[in-house]
Write a structure and sequence with these properties.
With about 240 residues, this protein is of the alpha+beta class. The protein has three helices and eleven strands. It has two domains: about 55 residues; about 160 residues, no CATH class. A six-stranded antiparallel sheet has the order 2-10-4-5-6-8, with no helix packed on it. It has a five-stranded antiparallel sheet with strand order 1-11-3-9-7, with no helix packed on it. The longest helix is centred in the first third of the chain and has 21 residues. It starts with a helix and ends with a helix.
C-alpha cells in the first residue's frame, strides 16, 4: 500500500464532493422589466397574459411644481394629487391616486423632481387583483405601487387622467412587469468536481493496490561497551 497517493486521493475525493454540491446551488433573481413606454404622453398600452404582474410608472414633467397645494395639517408640504387609471382589455379600470410632494426647505424646490408621498387605490378594483390587500374600504387603501396582478389576457392601458392644475405630459411613462428567474452561478464547478473525483479515485486505487513500500531497517550502531565486550571476548578466545 502506498500511503502518500492514498492520502492525496482521499483528499481529492472529499474536495470533489464539495465542488459538485456547490455547482447545484440556486440563486433566485427578481427584476423589473419595461414592457412598453412612451415619452411626452399621458398614456401607454402593453400586452399582458393572465396572472402577470403589471406596474405603471412615470416621470413628472418639470412644470408640475408650478401648480401645487401649498400644504395642510395632513400633508405639510407642497403637494399634487395625480389620478391614474389602469384599464383592462374589457374596458374595466381601477383608479389610483398618487400624492407627490416637494421639499419646501429647498429654495429651488420648484425646479426639483418630487417624491412619492402616498399611493392609494380607490374601489372598485377591476381587471387586476392586489395581493397585498385583503379588503378595500370605500375610501380607498394605501398600496406600495400602481398596479397588481392581471386577471385578463390582452392589452392593458395606463393613463394619467387628472391632476391639480395644468401641466405638460410626463417626460416618461411606462408599463412594466416583474420577471423571476433561477440561476446556477457555480455550475462551472460541476466538471471540476467530476475531474477532481476521477483523479482522487485513480490515486486512491493506486495507493490501495500498489506494491508495498520497502521497509527500511536502521543500521545498528555498536556502542562503546558492546565493542569493548566483544574485543574482550576475542582476547579470551585467543588466549
Amino acid at each position: 500500500m502506498k500511503r502518500i497517493p492514498l492520502i492525496f486521493g482521499v483528499l481529492l475525493i472529499f474536495a470533489s464532493v464539495f465542488f459538485v454540491w456547490a455547482s447545484n446551488k440556486q440563486i433566485n433573481d427578481t427584476r423589473t422589466v419595461t414592457v412598453n413606454y412612451a415619452e411626452d404622453s399621458w398614456k401607454v398600452s402593453a400586452y399582458y397574459d393572465r396572472n402577470q404582474t403589471i406596474l405603471f410608472d412615470f416621470v413628472p414633467a418639470k412644470d408640475w411644481s408650478q401648480a401645487t397645494d401649498p400644504g395642510s395639517n395632513t400633508i405639510p408640504f407642497p403637494h399634487k394629487f395625480v389620478e391614474v387609471n389602469l384599464t383592462a382589455p374589457n374596458g374595466e379600470y381601477t383608479l389610483f391616486v398618487v400624492t407627490l410632494i416637494w421639499d419646501p426647505e429647498d429654495p429651488d424646490w420648484k425646479y426639483k423632481p418630487p417624491s412619492v408621498f402616498n399611493i392609494s387605490v380607490i374601489p372598485p378594483i377591476s381587471g387586476i387583483t392586489i395581493p397585498e390587500l385583503e379588503e378595500v374600504s370605500p375610501g380607498g387603501e394605501t398600496v406600495s405601487a400602481i398596479g397588481g396582478v392581471t386577471t385578463q389576457r390582452g392589452y392593458y392601458t395606463g393613463e394619467i387622467v387628472a391632476m391639480l392644475g395644468p401641466g405638460s405630459p410626463p417626460v416618461w411613462i411606462a408599463l412594466r412587469t416583474i420577471e423571476k428567474s433561477t440561476g446556477y452561478p457555480y455550475a462551472y464547478m460541476f466538471p471540476v468536481g467530476i475531474g477532481t473525483f476521477l483523479c482522487g479515485a485513480v490515486l486512491t486505487s493506486w495507493g490501495l493496490l500498489g506494491a508495498d513500500e520497502p521497509t527500511r531497517h536502521k543500521r545498528r550502531v555498536k556502542t562503546k561497551k558492546q565493542f569493548i565486550r566483544k574485543k574482550g571476548i576475542r582476547k579470551g578466545l585467543s588466549a
